[in-house]
Specification:
Order of helices and strands: HEEEEHEEEEEEE
Distance between the termini: 51 Å
Shape: globular
Number of helices: 2
Helix content: 10-25%
Number of domains: 1
Largest sheet: 6 strands, antiparallel
Strand content: 35-45%
Radius of gyration: 19 Å
Number of strands: 11
Amino acid sequence: MKLTPLTLVPFAICLLGMISALNAEPGVSGTFTGNGKPAKLAFVSASKGEPLSGKDTVKVILSEQDQSKSKRPDWDAGFGKFGSALVLTIDTEGAIIGCEVAHSAHKKTPFSSVGRIKTSDFKWADGTVQAKVSTGGDCEFFGETWNVDLKFETKLR
């Protein structure tokens, strides 16, 4: 087979796709619903939290809108400044010890709810935090329903 510029095009496209995947920005994917209505969480940030019971913690903020310019993204996210959002506090073992739920479909927002939301595949190393978080189905909180099944990855701020 003779190599010509035209025969190299599929190879070049494949190579660019692989490079793009390797350089992909960390982010968030999955579902977050409130009262049956989906929110499109597209932004995630993480920062070191306050230690609890001798364990370090990380605060993860997942939101619909960019939070990068906020001095207090956890506070602002909880009060809807970035659309619907979740603010999670996670310890070094991956246990969620704080969860603020702020969904635009909820009348009572934000509210705090821990216990039903869990992590899996949690990793906090080399300045990066990643995990899957899920409620395992619909949860109810004073008449408001919510459901989370997300995967995220981000660098610490």
